[in-house]
Amino acid sequence: MRAARRLPSLALLLIVASLFSAAAADAQQKNSWDSAIDSFAAKITALAGAHASVRLTVKNVSSLDAGRVGDFTSALEERLQQRGLKIENGGAAGESIDVTIAENLRQLIFAAAVQHGDSREIALEALDRAKAEAKSEASARVRLQREVIWSQREPLLDFLVIPAASADGARGLFVLEPRRLVVYRAAADDWQVAESHPLLDYRVQRDARGFFAPPRGDSAEPFRLYVPGERCDLSLVGAISLNCGYDASPVVNIQRDFAPIGGACGGGNRGLASGHGDWTEPDTLSVVEGDGPYQKTGDDEMAFPGPILALRAGEAENTARVIWRDLRTGEYEAGIVTASCGD
To answer: Among 13, 81, 145, 217, which is least packed, fewest CB within 10 Å?
Structure first.
């Protein structure tokens, strides 16, 4: 059994942290705000243990303003959850993590006291104070708009809207279900079934998978359609045709939690990411950036009435194809989310 230890006083903790940070100053100069928080989260997780349920508190005794402290808290919670910890609000958690943000003349000091019963251990991280300043070159705010395209009771895996899918130039909606491809034709303000193509009668998985892969560049090239055990070429030249064959390779490229939106509103590596809830809870779609782990940008966050089941890049720039299930109605819904610039 680990011997119980008393938590050092705040003054002693800051003295130790200052010595620690001075020794690590050169290394920490190279770290950004985000990487320092990620490193801090890794140290906390090593002490708390993966998959632990914890209560997290953050106390600020530094010169950081409330907004930046909020940024720190949100980022730390996200990093801890990504590493398997479960953040609890109530008193049921088995461990507590008490974080203090302090500073010396050169650096911010992040100190976490991780309590296991009667024992506590300390995790420390330091960051050059200049690195903690919010980015001054703020890009235009990203706004998210959603257009619901289709809704049905049966599960759907993917969808495509084709501007001119028939000889008369009418729009077409292609809906991929676990066992068939259904083609709808635009009529007035609604969609009407035009044709249906069966797929292999494989045993539908609980987490069914399938997706469209549009052609690159040449519009005469067929679309690709993938489901487990089958790959199809979908041709839109002349009459719609679907030619399928057995494919033993696993279904890959299934993107369910991230879709890139490139340089929307002057940003860098931005994208849309779903939340971290399970398939029985409402979900959210947020603007994020980075190469992973992704960081929320503070732009629009869009709520969904159920879990997001598929999230993929749209055909138009700065758009995404989203499939979710409305827990209120039980319907599976498909829509296009567009990222645009706003005030």
So the answer is: 217
User: Shortest CA distance to 13 belongs to which of 122, 88, 140?
Assistant: 122
Closest CA to 16 of 132, 123, 131: 123
Find where tokens 């979908």 sit: 234
- Per-residue model confidence (pLDDT) at position 29: 38
What are the tokens at 313? Answer: 């890049």
Q: Name residue, tokens 């290394």.
A: 27
Q: Which of 32, 21, 19 is nearest to 110 (CA)?
A: 21
Please identify which residue in the block is written with the tokens 């509103």: 265
Q: Which residue has the higher pLDDT, 199 or 26?
A: 199
User: Using one digit for the tens of pLDDT, what is the confidence trace for 161-174?
Assistant: 987 655 566 788 99
pTM of whole model > 0.90?
Answer: no
Tell me the Ramachandran region of residue 318: left when phi exceeds 0, alpha when psi lies from -120 to 50, beta otherwise.
left
Q: pLDDT per residue over 83-116, tens digit each?
A: 888 888 655 556 889 999 999 888 999 999 998 7
CA–centroid distance for 232 within its chain: 29
Contact by Cβ (8 Å): 142, 270: yes
